[in-house]
């Protein structure tokens, strides 16, 4: 009898930043589509998703990918969480995005997310001296050499695993602070990019176990004159990618300006420590957009400006953001909102 190991992955109810959880289900028979995957349950009282006396939550598989670590016909399964009575659980942010994505599917929204993160070896960033600090920032970004770069073997393993799983990775790079890295997922539709980003995060943590190195999405893992970690979200609609799209992009920036505070509130915890106006960020209190401006809230890439169409880069989301929420906010503000002067 055929069987496969299916790693059921879900997002918990931890506040203010949710954590990934997973457990393995042995599935008998072939898995050709998500409908071949049974629903499952878990103890919500251990994941901040239920009270102890009524603790069963429901896992409903929504997408799956080949498991690059176990190999064979084993799979990684992304799940949504429901209450025992079948209603959407309050921690389930994917459900709302699912509805919006369907409503605005004619806009053909694309997202490319740049996930920054920091490796930790115990209580200090990977590669940092036991006492004090490494040399100041300057040579680490896209650096090479054992004095500049820390953790490349893990990064290479993670990249390979993502590609084997079919995740639409568009690249990786070493970041400005030593021990800090980035990978990019996309461009993809809102549900695809979000599911794949969560699974790529899961793979990062899981591969880190083998190296006894952890990865954190803390937006400011080291206080002081060190870059924080963000999740720049690149976004376009069909009309932005067509001739004359720059006008649509500028109109989108005006809509985003009117909703700045709502977006900040949804873009990840502790983001005020990162969006200081220094270190290639715009202050959390301000909203600015501009061509090629890495000190703006929204950057219009040089190429987009030159071509007259393309995409925008929302630089505000924090590394620990929930992509389901960030994609929801962008679609709501840009697609669902008529432009009104505030
Ligand atoms: P940066 O110059 O800000 O470091 P990156 O190369 O790290 O940019 O990331 C850019 C991201 O934008 C990639 O994930 C890429 O796939 C994505 N992207 C490219 N074109 C589009 C588009 N039209 N719509 C949305 N995302 C896009
Ligand atoms: Mn980047
Ligand atoms: Mn970056
Ligand atoms: Mn960027």
Q: What topology does this entry show?
A:
Layout: E1 3-11, E2 20-28, E3 40-43, E4 56-66, E5 75-83, H1 94-103, E6 110-121, E7 124-125, H2 152-165, E8 169-174, E9 180-188, H3 190-211, E10 214-216, E11 233-236, H4 245-258, H5 260-266, E12 289-291, E13 298-300, H6 302-307, E14 312-314, H7 323-334
Parallel strand pairs: 1-5, 12-13
Antiparallel strand pairs: 1-2, 3-4, 4-5, 6-7, 6-9, 6-10, 6-11, 8-9, 11-14, 13-14
Helix pairs in contact: 1-7, 2-3, 3-7
Bound molecules: adenosine-5'-diphosphate (ADP) and manganese (II) ion (3 copies).
One manganese (II) ion binds near residues 114, 232 and 313.
Summarize the structure.
This protein is α+β, with helices and mostly antiparallel strands. It has seven helices and 14 strands.
């Amino acid at each position: 009898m055929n069987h496969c190991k299916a790693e059921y992955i879900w997002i918990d109810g931890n506040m203010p930043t949710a954590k990934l959880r997973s457990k393995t289900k042995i599935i008998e028979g072939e898995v050709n589509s998500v409908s071949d995957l049974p629903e499952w349950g878990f103890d919500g009282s251990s994941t901040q998703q239920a009270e102890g006396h009524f603790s069963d939550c429901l896992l409903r598989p929504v997408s799956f990918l080949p498991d690059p670590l176990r190999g064979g016909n084993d799979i990684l399964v992304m799940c949504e969480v429901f209450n025992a009575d079948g209603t959407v659980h309050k921690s389930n942010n994917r459900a709302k995005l699912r509805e919006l994505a369907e409503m605005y599917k004619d806009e053909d929204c694309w997202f490319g997310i740049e996930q920054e993160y920091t490796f930790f070896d115990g209580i200090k960033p990977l590669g940092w001296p036991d006492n004090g600090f490494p040399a100041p920032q300057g040579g680490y970004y896209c650096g090479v050499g054992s004095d500049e770069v820390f953790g490349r073997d893990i990064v290479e393993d993670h990249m390979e695993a993502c590609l084997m799983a079919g995740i639409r990775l568009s690249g990786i790079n070493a970041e400005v602070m030593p021990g800090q890295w980035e990978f990019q997922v996309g461009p993809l539709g809102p549900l695809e990019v979000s599911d794949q980003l969560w699974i790529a995060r899961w793979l990062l943590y899981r591969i880190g176990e083998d190296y006894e190195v952890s990865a954190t999405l803390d937006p400011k893992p080291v206080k002081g004159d060190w870059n924080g970690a963000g999740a720049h979200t690149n976004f376009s609609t069909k009309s932005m990618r067509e001739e004359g799209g720059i006008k649509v992009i500028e109109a989108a920036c005006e809509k985003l300006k009117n909703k700045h505070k709502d977006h900040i509130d949804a873009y990840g915890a502790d983001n005020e420590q990162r969006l200081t106006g220094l270190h290639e960020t715009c202050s959390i209190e301000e909203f600015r957009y501009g061509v090629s401006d890495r000190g703006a809230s929204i950057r219009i890439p040089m190429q987009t400006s030159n071509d007259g169409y393309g995409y925008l880069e929302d630089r505000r989301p924090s590394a620990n953001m929930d992509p389901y929420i960030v994609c929801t906010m962008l679609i709501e503000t840009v697609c669902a909102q008529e432009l009104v002067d505030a």
